[in-house]
Every structure is written in structure tokens, then in C-alpha cells.
Amino acid sequence: MICLCRNQTSPFKGGKTVEEIGEFDWEKQFTELSEQCPILSSVLIGALTTEKSVHHFGLASKPCMSAKPVIGTLVSILAFQRKPKSMNYFQELNSVQMWLAGCQREMFNRLNHLGLWVGIKGTRSYLDRIRSSYDTEVFKWKTEICDYLLGLRSDSSVSGAYTIPYADSEATLSVDSFPSSAASSPQRPPARREYFQPQMQQPNEGYAARDRVPTLHLSDDVPLPERIKTIPLENYLPSEMDEVDLRFELTTIVHRILCEYIPILKPLANAINWHIQHRYSDVSAAKSQLVPIGVLDKDESRVSDTIDILEEYHKYVPLKPNGQPFKLLLHADGLSVERGNNAQNARINGNTAWKQLQGLQMNIQEWHKRCLLLQDIFDEMYKGSSGREIGTLFQLKNYFNHRNVTSNVKQSFNHDEEFLEFATNGYVVLAAMHVLNMQSLNDIPNSFPNTEDKQMHFLHDVSGKILDMVFLSTQPYVKHILQDQSNDPEAENEICVCRSTHQDPGMVYCANKDCMFGGWFHLDCLGLEEDDVPDGNWWCSLECKNYQHGKKKRATVADNLTDHKKCYALRVMWHGLNQKVRRDALRENDGKRIIMHWRFDLLNFYEHNHPKYFHVCHQLLSAISGAVSPRLQHSLTWNRTVNPNGGPGKNLEMDLQMEFFNKEYKESVKDAAGQLTEATIARHSQMVGVGKVIGSVYEKQVASMQRSTVQTTSTPRRESDIIEFVSMMSNEEIFTTTPGRHFKSFPDVTHVLFKRISASAFRKRLIRLRKELANHREITIQMQRN
DNA sequence: GCATGCAAGAACATCGGCGA
DNA sequence: TCGCCGATGTTCTTGCATGC
Questions:
Q1: Any signal peptide, and if so, which residues (predicted)?
Q2: Dist. CA A330–CA A347, nearest whole Å
Q3: Which residues contact A741 (CB under 8 A, 6 or more apart)?
Q4: Mean pLDDT of A734-749
Q5: Which of A167, A413, A434, A544 has the highest CB neighbour count under 10 A?
Q6: Cα distances (angstroms) measured from residue A107 to each of A73, A101, A616, A742
Q7: What are the phi and psi torsion angles at A363 (to 5°)?
Q8: Of A123 and A297, which is predicted with more confidence?
Q9: Chain A residues 614 to 673 with C-beta below 7 Å from nucleic strand B
Q10: Tens digits of per-residue pLDDT, A305-343?
């Protein structure tokens, strides 16, 4: 035993790094024991096995279980008792598991006395030692790319770069400058800890994700500003072909709904398309490598702090052989992209690309966008006053008891999305019953064919008819925008109280579209901060506000002939189906479709006054159309999601994955009971990634556990609710046109695409933003030349 | 045998949750 | 809103293991 404890390279010795933990093996421990302490080894084997079991199963304490882990554990405890400071490998591993599980201090001390764990202090210092390697993996990727660029590696393993999504972790914990301890007592600094005070500031969290779609083979040449100026306007708008594709996607979604809920069509479920294939379907099903890179104590609303964040992330940017940065994508939400751009603008005077913070290309993420679009839908279709009107979203919410659905989508995104999906499914089924003249779900339509081929045709036919009812084409608007050749007299471009034509990212829009100042205002001119601008409508003056309110529309002849209830149902279906196709494209990581949806959404952002999203969407579409290098274009299209667990159709938006990491971190940091110091925050955030590695090693190699491969699904079954929905709505005959009827809460809802898009203003804005982008590129290049 | 470093224990400041 | 309770992190002290 003494020899065992003296051995410097003993597998029982503690203080191992994460890599060494990965090599944990009971076999080594057992061999060491057999060599150093043969008698003890024989005694333990004799105690734990029977002659019969050894004969039949080798060294087994039970038929399917080796005795080696048990022997290893016993010897670890013995060695720990003899030399607690060095022979504590097993105890340290146990302690980390218990720390990750949130055990209390007292528990650490008790089990430390029993020789099972190290104490809380030992655990903490061990954690601090291993967490120092939290981003080693990212640096490994960086080195691989540098080597590849230098031509030192040519193997296919280095095919893609990596991406850094980040987000502010919204509210709960916060950071501020530390209280100054020196000021309070010059003699002896009081034993004052550096706690973070609750402020409105938000720390930022990020992770690195290895790209799955290869991009390194593509050119990394940055296009010239002239190239940006000549990007055709068509590239920003949905084309006729896009509309055909969208209709195909919507048809596929309708097929799925009908086969799920209409009994006679259920046998066709195997024949329809559940995964729309694309050129990278195989790669997209692969599991992503994700490395959380901790929390930064920065306040994003300050430009200087945003610069610090970008500088911090620049340490992960690989170096090209010519000394230039190898640009990586930095994914963030709309506001953060703007702030990132502002930070880069603030550094535009730098004489190298590094000083200009050009190593990171800001990019807008998907989940926040879906939140925004869903919020618009809820703003339009979900009103508390409609609780008694059968068929409205609020009534359906109450009737089917979707308690967690709220009008604030950010707070209850999953519930809201699931609820809209439910309402959409219900209306699609109703529409199908209307088309097929079915009285109940179990009816068999008159013309239902016998063979599967013909049944598929039948399904296509029904879906086509449903889509004819609901589909809205953007082409009239697009053509109008593209054909608008009116010359732009300078006066028409004047905006804001300063009457200039200059636009900058910090602007606010007056909700009165007839505003005499042109609608747009510089925040600087108004003396406002970004935070002062409300989420909903904003008016520049009382006159504008009253103008908006006072303008009551009189009922027209057209209103009296419109069936507003049917329009409401069609609108819910249209919005719901569109949300579904967007999610489906993301789940499949179908970059082409995702970008196509952005083109449709640019019009939505304009319609709903989201200037920031309009700007970043424009930036994304410009990049895809040639404002960035071909490598980044490809990466922006195809590396927009991550697949945390692997499997087809299981991709997640990068920012949604960020929310999961964020949640994990918040739950972990809760164990600190509010005692948040810099070290504590770093420990908890960095252990999110490292802890997972150690956890899986512990599970597999230490505890010899086999994880169940059966995966549970969290999607609730809504079949009975749909049946209920259909029977409730059957008396309403919602899809039979009845002129003049309407919901009181939605008196004038019509199923048209856009009400407020002014073709010339839209066009002008596109051209202006494109010009600004080109100018910005030109200045960047000039500064580097100087 | 001694110097050094580390871990455990004790004491204290502080925080969040809960109930009055 | 306030006080209590139970929890944590930090600092200081003590004692032990380790290495020379």
C-alpha cells in the first residue's frame, strides 16, 4: 500500500487535467494494484467473487458486471485515507459530479470524512484547475485552420471553420464595477468581498460551434465596394421561383397535417415527404461540436464594452498567412448585430484589419427573428376582448386550456408557437373538410380513390385547393418595387427634424405614415437613447398620435361584402403555415430555404416597422449576394444552425441553443445562492461545457452505466383536441363565405398581404442601405491602406 | 528535521426566499 | 416592507503532507 501511494505516476493520483480524465480506466488501477499490492488484490477478488462466477464470467461480481470498478473504488478509498492530498483522483471526480449536481457545503464535508469526496474547498480549487481548459478545443480548431491555410495540412478533417453565437443573458444576474475596498480604510482593507450589485446591465454569454458544411475550399477574397453597388435589387426580394418553392413547402406541410388528423388519409403518412432533402442533408444530420466559452462581464449597451467583447472574441480568430484575420461569423440578435456594427464603426480608424475588429462578421440569428414574427402575429390576431367569439385565438386558448399562452411571445415562445400550430392544424383540417364536403372527420369523401397512387393525387388535389384559398402572392408588390422608376428628387429623401437625407442605425419611426417629417428620425436629433424607444408604436408628436387615433375608417361597400370571419381564419392559417415552414427549414438546416424566407421577411419587417431588423436583414441578403467572400457566403447560408444531439430534422437555431446553455448556466449559478463574484460566475459558466465532458466520462467509464437509447418526445399529442376543435367549429361554417359577418374584436380583418408598403420608399431605402454598405467597405479598405 | 504549500475549519458578510 | 433562516463565498488560522 505504501508503494502504491509513493508511485508518482499512480493512476490513483489526483489533480488530473480534462484530457487525462478522458482516459480514465479501471483496468489501469487494477493492474497497478495487482503489481504493488498482490495480497490486498487477492483478498478483494476473493471477497467480491465466487469460484463459480470467476470460472464462468471472468472477474465478475455479478454475471454482467465486472468486479474491477468495485475493487478500484475500495482501493481508492484506502489510498485516500493514507494520502489524502495526493491519492484523491477518484474523490475529486466524485466531488465534481456532486458539485455539478448542486450539493451543499455540509454534504461535501460529511462525505469528505468518509473518504468518498474531497471537501468543498478542494472541489473548488480542482474545478478552477480544470476549467482553465474550457476553450482549449476552440484554440485547437484555430490552430488546425492556421495550419491548413499555411499548407501544412491538407486532410479532409479540416473542412470547415467555426462560428461564435453569443447573446446577453437577460436580467437575473448582472455585473457592475467592483466596490472599492481601498477607499473605506487606509490602515487595513476590510475583508470585503467583491460582490456584483444588481443593475440593469447584462453579461454576455457565448459558445463556439464547429461548422458542419465545408467552406474552406472556397475563396476568401473580399469583394470590392463596386461589387456591392451593383448587387441587383431583385436579390433582396422574393422571386417567382421563390414563390413556387414556398408553395411547395406549404403543400408539404399541409400534407403532413392532413395525414396526421384525417383518419381516411392516415395510411398515406408513409408515402409523404417528412424531411425535405437538400444537398447537405447528410451533414446536417451530424452532431455539432459545441464549446461554451463563458460569460463576459460586459454591458452591451455601451460601445466601449461591445468593443471589449469583440476584442475578447478576436482571440479565437485564426491568422491568415498574409497576416490578415481569417473572418469568422459572430451570430447575435438584431440589437446586438447593430451594436457590433457600431463597435466596428467606432474602430474604423484602425490601420489594420485587426484593429478595425474585422476578424468577425456580425450576423443575425434565426430564433429571435421567429420571436419577432410571432409577436407580430399575436399583436394582430390575439386580443383579450375576443374571448367569447368562437374561433378567435383567445377563445381557442381559453377553451383548450393553453394556460401558458400569453401575448408576450418572448416570455412564452414555446407555448405560443405550439398554440398557433394547434390553431393552424385545426383550421387546415376544417378547410379540408370544407373542400371535401365532409360533415365529420370520419366521413369518407365521395370521390376517394382505392389505389395508393390515386390517393396521393387526391391528397395533392385537396392540399392545392386549400392553398389556393390561403396563399398570398408577394409578386405584385415585388414587381411594383422593381418597376418603380420614378426619379428620386432629393427633397423626397429628406427625413427627421434636421431635414437631412442621411440615415444611420440609431433611428426611430413615427407610426403616422403621413408624418410631415418623412417618418424617420435620428435618435441623436431627438436627444433619445435606444432604450427610450417603446417596443410598439411611437409617434413623434401629439398631432401625429391624434391623427392616427382620430382617423376612423367608415364602413365601405367592400367591407359589407367581405366575410371577415373567414378572412380571420385564413389569416391564422397563413401565418401559422408560414411559421411552420420557417421552422421546418431550420430543423433541416436547409440554407437555401432559410435565406429565401429572409427575402420574404424583408417585406414583413418593412410592413411592421422593424427598422433594425430591416437593416440587418438587408445586411444578410447583401452578404449572401456578394458583399462578403464566397467562403462566408457559403457559411452564412449553410451553417446557420447547430445539431446538439444529432439526427435528421433535429437542427436548432444557434440562438435557441444559446438559450439552453444560458438556462443551464443560470441553474448552475443558482447554487451560489446569489453570492456572485467574478470567479464564481466564471466557474459556473465555464463548467457548463467542461462539466458535460466530465459527466459523460464519469457515466461511461467510472460508473459503467449504459444510457437508454429511447428518446422521449416533448411534443404533446393534440389529436383529441383537434376532434373537439372540429366539432366546436362545425356549426360556424367558417369557410363558407357569408358576406358581412365579422368578429367584434376584429371588425375589418382582411386576408391581404401588405397594407402599407410604399413601393418607392421601399426601393429608396434598399438603394440607400446598399450605398451605405459600399461606402463603409470603401472607408475600411482606405484606412487599412493608410 | 525543516520549510513550504495546500486543504480543512471557523468566523463573518451577504444574498434570496419566505412568512408575518 | 421587514426580519428570520438557511445558504454561499471569502478571509484567516491551523494542521498536515510533501519535498528537500
A1: none
A2: 17
A3: A563, A564, A565
A4: 80
A5: A167
A6: 20, 12, 51, 65
A7: -145, 145
A8: A123
A9: 673
A10: 888 888 888 888 888 888 888 888 888 887 888 888 888
Beta bridge partners of A332: A364
Percent of chain A with pLDDT over 70: 80
pLDDT average, residue stretch A499-509: 72
For residue A736, the model assigns a pLDDT of: 82
**Interaxial angle between packed helices A678-697 and A89-100, expressed in degrees from 0 to 180 and rounded to the nearest 10:** 110
Spatial contact of A740 and A571, defined as CB atoms under 8 Å apart: no
CA of A85 to C1' of C4 (A): 39
Range with the largest mean pLDDT of A463-467, A538-542, A669-673: A463-467
pLDDT surpasses 50 at A673: yes
Kindly tell me if the per-residue pLDDT of A488 is higher than 60.
Answer: no
Q: In angstroms, rounded to a whole number, what is the distance separating the alpha carbons of residues A663 and A657?
A: 10
What is the per-residue DSSP string for A737-782?
--TT--BTTBTT----S-SS--HHHHHHHHHHHHHHHHHHHHHHHH
Cell representation of residue A153: 495540412
A140 touches strand B (CB under 7 A): no
C-alpha distances (whole Å) from A252 to each of A279, A370, A474, A649 are: 18, 20, 20, 15
**Contacts of strand C, CB cut-off 7 Å?**
A 5, 8, 83-87, 103-106, 120, 124, 191, 193, 671-673, 675, 677, 679-680
- Rounded CA-CA distance A497/A510 in Å is 12
Rg (CA), chain A: 31
| A510, three cell numbers | 413615427
Q: Are A390 and A376 in contact (CB under 8 A)?
A: no
Grid cell locating A92: 475529486
For residue A192, what pLDDT band results from cuts at 50, 70 and 90?
very low
Nearest Cα residue to A17 out of A133, A147, A135, A162: A133
